[in-house]
Amino acid sequence: MNELTSYSRPQTFWLVALRLLIGWHFLYEGIVKILNSGWTAYPYLMDSHGFLSNLFHGIAENPQILAISNIINIYGLTLIGLGLILGCFSRVASIGGIVFLALYYLSHPPFIGAEYMMPTEGSYLWVDKNVIEIGALMVLIYFPTSQIIGLDRYISKIFNRKSA
Questions:
Q1: Nearest to 81, CA basis, from 34, 47, 38, 37
Q2: Is the pLDDT reported for residue 164 higher than 70?
Q3: Backbone phi and psi for residue 125, each to the nearest 5 degrees, phi listed first
Q4: What 3-state class would DSSP assign to 104?
Q5: Which one in 12, 16, 131, 164 has a CA-CA gap of 20 to 30 Å to 54?
């Protein structure tokens, strides 16, 4: 029995549930943006107050870079969500999710005295939902389940046949 299948049933269930929940969060965020033809990252980027705020403001103020940023956001969120839900290229999807969340965190860090126009769901200090979701994605990287329940199981079989 390899290490990927050595989880207990409850461990497998909750790890897969975690993957599906995070996948849904990313997928839904992407779909909402796809369905809203007027969506743009402009207000979010201009609301940045972190130490990288000049970078985020620069992206927002350049129409070509903003358009690229919008496309990356919309379709990146959607593809990350699909990858996690389907268990397809889950490691890549998890790493992509971590990159997105780190950028969101850096644009709106929950530091003392930071006030943002965009509404938040609570009061945060240093640790917010982005950091928590980054931690959860790290768990999924180090305790993968897509080889057990997911398309990665079938993809790896195809590649193993070709290399044999």
A1: 34
A2: no
A3: -140, 110
A4: helix
A5: 131
